[in-house]
Protein backbone atom coordinates (compact mmCIF):
# COMPACT_ATOMS: atom_id res chain seq x y z
CA UNK A 1 0.00 0.00 0.00
CA UNK A 2 1.46 3.35 -1.06
CA UNK A 3 2.16 5.88 1.68
CA UNK A 4 1.63 9.53 0.86
CA UNK A 5 4.56 11.68 1.89
CA UNK A 6 2.93 14.65 3.55
CA UNK A 7 5.02 17.76 2.90
CA UNK A 8 4.95 19.11 6.44
CA UNK A 9 6.46 15.87 7.77
CA UNK A 10 9.38 16.22 5.36
CA UNK A 11 10.29 19.88 5.60
CA UNK A 12 7.90 21.82 7.81
CA UNK A 13 8.99 25.29 8.87
CA UNK A 14 12.14 25.27 6.76
CA UNK A 15 11.98 28.60 4.91
CA UNK A 16 14.22 31.40 6.14
CA UNK A 17 12.05 34.50 5.68
CA UNK A 18 12.75 38.15 6.38
CA UNK A 19 10.58 41.25 6.11
CA UNK A 20 12.16 44.62 5.45
CA UNK A 21 10.47 47.24 7.63
CA UNK A 22 13.51 49.51 7.80
CA UNK A 23 11.66 52.38 6.09
CA UNK A 24 8.53 52.01 8.23
CA UNK A 25 8.38 53.40 11.80
CA UNK A 26 7.66 50.37 14.00
CA UNK A 27 8.22 48.68 17.34
CA UNK A 28 9.27 45.05 17.50
CA UNK A 29 6.95 43.33 20.01
CA UNK A 30 8.16 39.76 19.46
CA UNK A 31 10.46 37.70 17.27
CA UNK A 32 7.93 37.83 14.42
CA UNK A 33 5.55 40.58 15.52
CA UNK A 34 5.62 44.31 14.93
CA UNK A 35 3.51 47.28 16.01
CA UNK A 36 3.14 50.18 13.58
CA UNK A 37 1.86 53.58 14.67
CA UNK A 38 -0.52 54.82 11.99
CA UNK A 39 0.00 58.41 13.06
CA UNK A 40 3.66 58.28 12.01
CA UNK A 41 3.53 55.81 9.11
CA UNK A 42 2.39 56.52 5.58
CA UNK A 43 -0.98 54.97 4.64
CA UNK A 44 0.60 52.98 1.83
CA UNK A 45 3.16 50.47 3.07
CA UNK A 46 5.57 48.52 0.87
CA UNK A 47 7.24 45.57 2.60
CA UNK A 48 9.99 43.66 0.80
CA UNK A 49 10.06 39.93 1.48
CA UNK A 50 13.04 37.58 1.07
CA UNK A 51 12.63 33.79 1.30
CA UNK A 52 15.46 31.26 1.29
CA UNK A 53 14.31 27.82 0.15
CA UNK A 54 16.31 24.78 1.38
CA UNK A 55 18.06 22.79 -1.31
CA UNK A 56 16.55 19.53 -0.02
CA UNK A 57 13.09 20.73 -1.04
CA UNK A 58 13.57 18.75 -4.24
CA UNK A 59 13.17 15.60 -2.12
CA UNK A 60 9.46 16.44 -1.89
CA UNK A 61 9.14 15.78 -5.63
CA UNK A 62 9.39 12.46 -7.51
CA UNK A 63 12.67 11.88 -9.33
CA UNK A 64 11.24 12.81 -12.71
CA UNK A 65 10.43 16.33 -11.49
CA UNK A 66 13.56 17.14 -9.48
CA UNK A 67 15.57 18.68 -12.30
CA UNK A 68 12.83 21.27 -12.87
CA UNK A 69 10.45 20.99 -9.90
CA UNK A 70 6.95 22.49 -10.23
CA UNK A 71 7.56 24.89 -7.35
CA UNK A 72 6.30 28.33 -6.52
CA UNK A 73 6.82 30.50 -3.46
CA UNK A 74 3.85 32.51 -2.25
CA UNK A 75 3.30 34.94 0.60
CA UNK A 76 -0.22 34.89 2.03
CA UNK A 77 -1.50 38.20 3.36
CA UNK A 78 -4.50 37.83 5.65
CA UNK A 79 -6.38 40.37 7.75
CA UNK A 80 -9.73 39.31 9.17
CA UNK A 81 -10.68 42.77 10.41
CA UNK A 82 -9.50 44.34 7.14
CA UNK A 83 -11.28 41.80 4.93
CA UNK A 84 -8.02 40.94 3.16
CA UNK A 85 -6.96 37.50 2.01
CA UNK A 86 -4.62 37.45 -0.94
CA UNK A 87 -1.50 35.68 -2.23
CA UNK A 88 1.59 37.53 -3.39
CA UNK A 89 3.88 35.53 -5.68
CA UNK A 90 7.60 35.81 -4.97
CA UNK A 91 10.00 35.78 -7.89
CA UNK A 92 13.05 33.54 -8.08
CA UNK A 93 16.29 35.55 -7.96
CA UNK A 94 18.79 32.70 -7.42
CA UNK A 95 18.38 28.91 -7.27
CA UNK A 96 17.15 29.09 -3.66
CA UNK A 97 16.30 32.78 -3.20
CA UNK A 98 12.88 34.31 -3.83
CA UNK A 99 11.85 37.95 -3.44
CA UNK A 100 8.68 40.02 -3.61
CA UNK A 101 6.94 43.10 -2.29
CA UNK A 102 3.77 43.21 -0.23
CA UNK A 103 1.75 46.40 -0.47
CA UNK A 104 -0.62 47.28 2.35
CA UNK A 105 -3.15 50.07 2.72
CA UNK A 106 -3.05 50.81 6.45
CA UNK A 107 -6.34 52.72 6.24
CA UNK A 108 -8.12 49.44 5.38
CA UNK A 109 -6.67 47.43 8.29
CA UNK A 110 -8.07 48.45 11.70
CA UNK A 111 -6.07 45.97 13.78
CA UNK A 112 -3.64 43.51 12.22
CA UNK A 113 -2.38 41.56 9.22
CA UNK A 114 -0.58 38.21 9.17
CA UNK A 115 2.02 37.24 6.59
CA UNK A 116 3.36 33.75 5.97
CA UNK A 117 5.47 32.49 3.07
CA UNK A 118 4.90 29.01 1.63
CA UNK A 119 6.66 26.85 -0.93
CA UNK A 120 3.95 24.93 -2.77
CA UNK A 121 3.44 22.73 -5.80
CA UNK A 122 2.65 24.86 -8.84
CA UNK A 123 0.81 22.08 -10.67
CA UNK A 124 -0.77 18.75 -9.86
CA UNK A 125 1.15 15.51 -10.22
CA UNK A 126 0.32 11.82 -10.42
CA UNK A 127 3.31 10.11 -8.80
CA UNK A 128 2.35 7.71 -6.02
CA UNK A 129 3.86 8.47 -2.63
CA UNK A 130 4.15 12.24 -3.07
CA UNK A 131 1.85 15.18 -2.37
CA UNK A 132 -0.15 15.31 -5.60
CA UNK A 133 -2.28 18.48 -5.65
CA UNK A 134 -1.47 21.94 -6.90
CA UNK A 135 -1.06 24.18 -3.86
CA UNK A 136 0.20 21.40 -1.55
CA UNK A 137 2.47 22.94 1.08
CA UNK A 138 6.06 21.73 0.89
CA UNK A 139 7.67 24.14 3.34
CA UNK A 140 6.88 27.43 5.03
CA UNK A 141 8.33 30.17 7.15
CA UNK A 142 7.24 31.69 10.45
CA UNK A 143 3.98 33.62 10.70
CA UNK A 144 4.65 37.36 10.93
CA UNK A 145 2.08 39.63 12.51
CA UNK A 146 1.96 43.35 11.81
CA UNK A 147 -0.39 45.18 14.15
CA UNK A 148 -1.77 48.70 13.98
CA UNK A 149 -3.49 48.37 17.35
CA UNK A 150 -2.28 46.90 20.64
CA UNK A 151 -3.18 43.22 20.96
CA UNK A 152 -5.93 42.59 23.54
CA UNK A 153 -5.39 39.91 26.21
CA UNK A 154 -6.33 36.33 25.29
CA UNK A 155 -9.49 34.68 26.45
CA UNK A 156 -12.78 36.15 27.64
CA UNK A 157 -14.37 35.08 24.37
CA UNK A 158 -17.46 33.59 26.01
CA UNK A 159 -20.44 35.62 27.24
CA UNK A 160 -22.83 34.20 29.86
CA UNK A 161 -26.55 35.03 29.86
CA UNK A 162 -29.68 33.74 31.58
CA UNK A 163 -32.51 32.87 29.20
CA UNK A 164 -36.07 31.54 29.34
CA UNK A 165 -35.72 28.31 27.33
CA UNK A 166 -39.48 28.07 26.79
CA UNK A 167 -39.62 31.43 25.01
CA UNK A 168 -36.29 31.99 23.30
CA UNK A 169 -35.29 33.21 19.87
CA UNK A 170 -31.94 31.46 20.26
CA UNK A 171 -32.44 28.15 22.05
CA UNK A 172 -34.10 25.52 19.80
CA UNK A 173 -37.78 24.94 20.59
CA UNK A 174 -38.76 21.88 22.59
CA UNK A 175 -35.82 21.88 25.01
CA UNK A 176 -37.31 23.73 27.97
CA UNK A 177 -35.83 21.19 30.40
CA UNK A 178 -32.24 21.71 29.25
CA UNK A 179 -29.80 23.26 31.67
CA UNK A 180 -27.64 25.27 29.27
CA UNK A 181 -27.09 26.02 25.59
CA UNK A 182 -24.01 27.42 23.84
CA UNK A 183 -24.42 29.54 20.70
CA UNK A 184 -21.24 29.45 18.61
CA UNK A 185 -22.67 31.48 15.72
CA UNK A 186 -22.12 34.77 17.54
CA UNK A 187 -18.82 36.51 18.16
CA UNK A 188 -18.07 36.08 20.96
CA UNK A 189 -20.02 32.85 21.63
CA UNK A 190 -22.77 32.98 24.26
CA UNK A 191 -23.45 30.45 27.01
CA UNK A 192 -27.15 30.54 27.94
CA UNK A 193 -28.25 29.21 31.32
CA UNK A 194 -31.91 28.25 31.69
CA UNK A 195 -33.72 30.57 34.11
CA UNK A 196 -36.51 27.96 34.31
CA UNK A 197 -34.14 26.02 36.59
CA UNK A 198 -35.22 25.66 40.19
CA UNK A 199 -34.62 28.53 42.57
CA UNK A 200 -32.15 26.40 44.55
CA UNK A 201 -30.08 25.58 41.45
CA UNK A 202 -30.05 29.19 40.31
CA UNK A 203 -29.03 30.31 43.78
CA UNK A 204 -26.15 27.84 43.81
CA UNK A 205 -24.92 28.88 40.38
CA UNK A 206 -25.09 32.55 41.35
CA UNK A 207 -23.23 31.98 44.63
CA UNK A 208 -20.10 34.11 45.00
CA UNK A 209 -16.95 33.79 47.09
CA UNK A 210 -14.65 30.90 48.00
CA UNK A 211 -13.92 28.69 51.01
CA UNK A 212 -17.52 28.32 52.17
CA UNK A 213 -19.72 25.21 52.07
CA UNK A 214 -21.44 26.09 48.78
CA UNK A 215 -18.28 27.01 46.86
CA UNK A 216 -17.18 23.44 46.05
CA UNK A 217 -20.52 22.18 44.63
CA UNK A 218 -20.87 25.44 42.69
CA UNK A 219 -17.39 25.03 41.20
CA UNK A 220 -18.11 21.40 40.38
CA UNK A 221 -21.27 22.40 38.50
CA UNK A 222 -19.46 25.04 36.52
CA UNK A 223 -16.58 22.69 35.76
CA UNK A 224 -19.03 20.11 34.41
CA UNK A 225 -20.77 22.76 32.28
CA UNK A 226 -17.45 24.20 31.10
CA UNK A 227 -16.24 20.76 30.04
CA UNK A 228 -19.17 20.37 27.63
CA UNK A 229 -19.02 23.97 26.46
CA UNK A 230 -15.31 23.81 25.72
CA UNK A 231 -15.84 20.68 23.66
CA UNK A 232 -18.55 22.40 21.59
CA UNK A 233 -16.21 25.35 21.04
CA UNK A 234 -13.40 22.96 20.09
CA UNK A 235 -15.55 21.16 17.53
CA UNK A 236 -16.69 24.47 16.00
CA UNK A 237 -13.14 25.85 15.80
CA UNK A 238 -11.73 22.57 14.44
CA UNK A 239 -14.48 22.44 11.79
CA UNK A 240 -13.69 25.99 10.66
CA UNK A 241 -9.98 25.25 10.42
CA UNK A 242 -10.71 22.01 8.58
CA UNK A 243 -12.95 23.81 6.08
CA UNK A 244 -10.23 26.37 5.37
CA UNK A 245 -7.59 23.65 5.03
CA UNK A 246 -9.65 21.90 2.38
CA UNK A 247 -9.72 25.02 0.24
CA UNK A 248 -6.45 24.01 -1.40
CA UNK A 249 -4.47 27.03 -0.20
CA UNK A 250 -1.99 27.38 2.67
CA UNK A 251 -3.74 27.96 5.97
CA UNK A 252 -2.79 29.86 9.08
CA UNK A 253 -4.98 30.89 11.99
CA UNK A 254 -5.80 34.25 10.46
CA UNK A 255 -7.82 32.36 7.84
CA UNK A 256 -10.49 31.58 10.44
CA UNK A 257 -13.69 33.51 10.08
CA UNK A 258 -13.78 34.76 13.67
CA UNK A 259 -11.19 35.98 16.14
CA UNK A 260 -12.52 33.85 19.01
CA UNK A 261 -11.79 30.70 16.99
CA UNK A 262 -8.23 31.83 16.39
CA UNK A 263 -7.72 32.51 20.10
CA UNK A 264 -9.39 29.24 21.05
CA UNK A 265 -7.11 27.20 18.76
CA UNK A 266 -4.10 28.98 20.27
CA UNK A 267 -5.30 27.95 23.73
CA UNK A 268 -6.47 24.40 23.06
CA UNK A 269 -3.83 23.14 20.59
CA UNK A 270 -1.08 22.99 23.28
CA UNK A 271 -3.54 21.16 25.56
CA UNK A 272 -4.29 18.56 22.88
CA UNK A 273 -0.61 18.20 21.92
CA UNK A 274 1.23 18.71 25.23
CA UNK A 275 4.46 17.16 23.95
CA UNK A 276 4.93 20.00 21.44
CA UNK A 277 5.82 23.64 22.05
CA UNK A 278 2.68 25.83 21.76
CA UNK A 279 3.67 27.32 18.39
CA UNK A 280 4.38 23.87 16.93
CA UNK A 281 1.06 22.53 18.22
CA UNK A 282 -0.83 25.34 16.49
CA UNK A 283 1.17 24.84 13.29
CA UNK A 284 0.39 21.12 13.27
CA UNK A 285 -3.32 21.88 13.63
CA UNK A 286 -3.17 24.25 10.66
CA UNK A 287 -1.38 21.76 8.43
CA UNK A 288 -3.06 18.48 9.37
CA UNK A 289 -6.66 19.31 10.27
CA UNK A 290 -7.83 18.61 6.70
CA UNK A 291 -6.99 14.92 7.18
CA UNK A 292 -10.10 13.02 8.33
CA UNK A 293 -8.21 10.71 10.66
CA UNK A 294 -6.25 13.55 12.21
CA UNK A 295 -9.44 15.60 12.72
CA UNK A 296 -11.21 12.68 14.44
CA UNK A 297 -8.21 11.96 16.65
CA UNK A 298 -7.87 15.65 17.57
CA UNK A 299 -11.49 15.72 18.75
CA UNK A 300 -10.98 12.56 20.82
CA UNK A 301 -7.86 14.02 22.41
CA UNK A 302 -9.68 17.30 23.02
CA UNK A 303 -12.22 15.50 25.22
CA UNK A 304 -9.60 14.37 27.72
CA UNK A 305 -7.42 17.46 27.29
CA UNK A 306 -10.31 19.72 28.25
CA UNK A 307 -11.10 17.57 31.29
CA UNK A 308 -7.48 17.91 32.33
CA UNK A 309 -7.47 21.64 31.78
CA UNK A 310 -10.64 22.03 33.82
CA UNK A 311 -9.16 19.80 36.60
CA UNK A 312 -12.50 17.99 36.47
CA UNK A 313 -11.39 14.80 38.22
CA UNK A 314 -9.73 16.77 41.01
CA UNK A 315 -12.96 18.65 41.74
CA UNK A 316 -15.02 15.46 41.72
CA UNK A 317 -12.52 13.82 44.06
CA UNK A 318 -12.71 16.73 46.49
CA UNK A 319 -16.49 16.61 46.38
CA UNK A 320 -16.58 12.83 46.97
CA UNK A 321 -14.08 13.09 49.81
CA UNK A 322 -16.20 15.72 51.52
CA UNK A 323 -19.34 13.62 51.12
CA UNK A 324 -17.75 10.63 52.87
CA UNK A 325 -15.48 12.36 55.37
CA UNK A 326 -17.88 11.51 58.21
CA UNK A 327 -18.50 7.90 57.18
Descriptive overview:
By secondary structure, this protein is of the alpha+beta class. The chain has 2 domains: 7-147, Sandwich (Immunoglobulin-like), CATH 2.60.40; 152-327, no CATH class. The protein is built from 7 helices and 13 strands. The strands form 2 sheets. Strands 1, 2, 3, 4, 5, 6, 7, 8, 9 and 10 form a 10-stranded mixed beta sheet that branches. Strands 11-13-12 form a 3-stranded mixed beta sheet, with helices on one face. Strand 6 (84-94) and strand 7 form a beta hairpin. Helix 3 (215-245) packs antiparallel against helix 6 (292-309), helix 3 (215-245) runs antiparallel to helix 7 and helix 4 packs across helix 5. Mean pLDDT is 83; it is low at 1-10.
Structure at a glance:
With 327 residues, the protein is α+β, with helices and mostly antiparallel strands. It is 30% helix and 26% strand.
Count of β-strands: 13
Counting H and I runs of at least 4 residues, what is the number of helices?
A: 7
The count of domains is: 2
Shape label: elongated
Low-confidence stretches: 1-10
| Biggest sheet features | 10 strands, mixed
Radius of gyration using CA atoms only: 24 Å
The ordered string of helix (H) and strand (E) elements is: HEEEEEEEEEEEEEHHHHHH
What quaternary form is this?
single chain
Proportion of helical residues: 25-40%
Average pLDDT confidence is 83
Structural class computed from helices and strand pairing: alpha+beta
Give the strand content.
25-35%
Head-to-tail CA distance between termini = 61 Å
